[in-house]
Design a protein that fits this description.
Elements: E1 6-12, E2 16-17, H1 29-32, H2 40-50, H3 53-63, E3 72-76, E4 84-88, H4 90-100, H5 118-125, E5 126-132, H6 139-146, H7 155-169, H8 172-176, H9 183-203, H10 218-229, E6 240-242, E7 247-249, H11 255-271, H12 294-302, H13 310-318, H14 323-327, E8 333-336, E9 355-359, E10 370-375, E11 378-382, E12 393-403, E13 407-417, H15 443-455, H16 463-484, H17 496-507, H18 510-520, H19 527-530, H20 533-548, H21 556-578
Parallel strand pairs: 2-4, 3-5
Antiparallel strand pairs: 1-5, 3-4, 6-7, 8-9, 10-11, 10-12, 12-13
Helix pairs in contact: 3-4, 7-9, 9-10, 9-11, 11-13, 15-16, 16-20, 16-21, 17-20, 20-21
């Protein structure tokens, strides 16, 4: 039998292209967000975030080379002479490329990837690769290595691998040829994967920050899926399985109801916190040990405690009306105040505070009402708080609760945001680029800005006054965040510029900046650029310079730049103080 592969020596590491179809990240939402064309930059970011490439790069530096036994396995890149697709060894290839070319490193990882000397550069620049003629010819090797071998894929990654092959071949028998699993096992894996993705897609709009790689895959698909999709008289949906596509599908006229069922299931298995992290009134995530047998699975639904409302939705799907329960229960309701028109939206608006009463069918107070809102008819997100938004606009809010007996209970309200009255300072440099947004954390700050607006026509003559006053804006913002006591870290360096720099660095941690980015970036189109920390110390130092040296070294452009940064620091401080979704974990 002729060998399928051959060895190639001294291949330039940059002739190797990372594989967009690698099962470790082909299903990633991070990659999908980049659009149909997956770039090398997208793959690098994903590998850094989820595949321990930083640790690998540091280990390569410690050792001084790649281990000789770890060959990178490739196939030729179709249509491009001299380039190869990495089919095995994407992490190693990525680590080497980042060590050799620091321009490829995303800004958040610059300090985590060490610089290397010329000797190591020479060691990594060219590599020995194993070359297969095409992607199909390497499938047996990948299966032996990652499904039954020494570097196992997770269950999700393995099933994603099967799914990718199935989509290409449409034949279970052909997929099974590349693995030691039976055809039956492969078939079940593909069915489970597609069910999981249906559940994932039902929740991702409400939970935009969900990371698929961090979800617990097996309890949902191996333990719970069967009881839900089968023909059990009480709790089974009796779904149709498409034997060609291997995917479950609901009745066409019940698609929305089916999505609501999957959403409840997804929240219970994938979104909730672990038990040890829950408060006393919170339901913890469902784990595999709770549903080890068929009786437990069925009880999980019929008791209607661990996934409240699921039984009611299932009965509604099956066309079963539980009138006996309705006759003996109180009709649930949600009472909400009407909102008066408002001139300026504020990050302090709390939607939940407007609920006057909410009761379930047992006349018990409801804790788990969900708030969903739309702006000018465009769906935004699930939230209990309104961040900074553009005005004028009409905001529609739905307060929703799924009752175990009556199903969906909804109360709808609207808020009209209108433009404030025209004033003489409409075009002031102090008008924030986020339209009509005014921080509300300090009356002192707002009064200072109003006085500066009046002086603005004479900015050229009073540059030192502006510089000194803007320095106060930075200081007031820092003090306001510290006094809010929301964060254990305090920003109290001996120099103001260092305090501001620390505040910005703290804010641009992904869990904070991402939350506010959707609002702030309406005005600041490139939030990452605006938040580069190296610029902040310079800006505050310029404000010092203008205050202490009478503005002699301060240009009009400098003052305008300082004002722009003070505008952004006001927004950041206000979001940190008033945005309830920004808090320390």
């Amino acid at each position: 039998m002729v060998k399928k592969f051959k060895y190639l020596e001294d291949v330039d590491i940059f002739k190797l292209k990372l594989d967009a179809e690698n099962p470790r990240f082909a299903s990633s939402e991070l990659i999908k967000k980049s659009g149909k064309t997956i770039s090398q930059e997208d793959i690098i970011k994903h590998l850094l975030k989820y595949s321990d490439v930083v640790e690998l790069a540091n280990r390569i530096v410690e050792v001084g080379e790649l281990h000789g036994s770890d060959l990178i396995t490739c196939c030729k890149k179709e249509g491009v002479e001299g380039e190869f697709i990495v089919l095995e060894g994407n992490r190693r290839t990525c680590a080497c490329q980042l060590l050799l070319n620091r321009n490829l490193i995303p800004v958040d990882y610059i300090k985590k990837i060490p610089e290397i000397d010329e000797e190591l550069k020479n060691n990594l620049q060219s590599v020995l690769i194993t070359l297969y003629p095409d992607r199909e010819s390497i499938q047996d090797y990948l299966s032996d290595r990652h499904i039954k071998g020494i570097k196992l894929w997770s269950a999700l990654e393995k099933n994603n691998y099967y799914m990718n092959l199935f989509q290409k071949t449409g034949d279970i028998e052909e997929v099974a040829k590349h693995t030691t699993n039976t055809k039956r096992e492969v078939r079940n894996c593909i069915i489970q994967y597609q069910f999981f993705m249906d559940v994932f897609n039902s929740i991702k709009e409400d939970y935009s920050n969900i990371e698929i790689e961090k979800l617990d895959y097996l309890p949902l698909v191996e333990r719970f899926m069967t009881i839900l999709v089968n023909d059990d008289e009480e709790v089974g949906l009796n779904l149709n399985l498409d034997e060609i596509r291997l995917v479950y599908s609901p009745e066409k006229d019940k698609m929305d109801l089916y999505k609501n069922i999957l959403k409840l299931v997804g929240e219970a298995f994938l979104i909730r916190k672990d038990k040890k992290a829950c408060l006393s009134n919170e339901l913890p995530k469902i784990i595999g040990s709770e549903i080890s047998n068929t009786a437990d699975k069925k009880l999980l639904i019929t008791e209607d405690k661990r996934i409240p409302g699921l039984l009611g939705l299932i009965k509604k799907y099956k066309g079963v009306e539980d009138n006996s329960k309705k006759d003996s229960s109180i009709k649930p309701y949600i009472s909400v105040k009407n909102f008066s028109p408002r001139e300026v939206p504020s990050a302090a608006i709390n939607l939940r505070e407007n609920i006057t009463d909410a009761r379930n069918n047992k006349n018990q107070n409801i804790k788990d009402v969900v708030e969903i809102f739309q702006i000018n008819g465009e769906y935004r997100k699930k939230s209990d708080h309104i961040g900074t938004i553009e005005v004028p606009c009409e905001l529609s809010i739905e307060y929703r609760y799924v009752d175990a007996v009556y199903g969906d209970i909804v109360a709808k309200r609207k808020i009209i945001f209108k433009n404030p009255p025209e004033n003489n300072f409409k075009c002031s440099l102090f008008d924030l680029t986020v339209p009509n947004y005014r921080p509300n954390y300090s009356n002192t700050l707002n009064l200072l800005i109003e006085e500066l607006r009046k002086l603005e026509p004479h900015i050229e003559d009073y540059k030192e006054v502006f510089a000194c006053s803007i320095r106060s804006i930075f200081e007031i913002s820092i003090v306001a965040v510290n006094q809010s006591n929301k964060f254990s870290q305090k920003f109290k360096s001996s120099e103001l510029e260092n305090s501001v720099d620390e505040l910005v660095k703290f804010f641009i941690k992904q869990k904070y900046a991402t939350i506010a980015d959707g609002e702030i970036s309406k005005g600041y189109k490139n939030l990452d650029t605006q938040l580069k920390s190296t610029e902040w110390t310079k800006i505050v130092q310029k404000a010092h310079l203008g205050a202490h040296r009478a503005g002699e070294d301060l240009s009009l452009l400098d003052v305008q730049d300082i004002i722009q940064k003070s505008n952004l620091i006001r927004i950041i401080a206000n979001e940190m103080i008033n945005n309830q979704n920004i808090k320390e974990s």
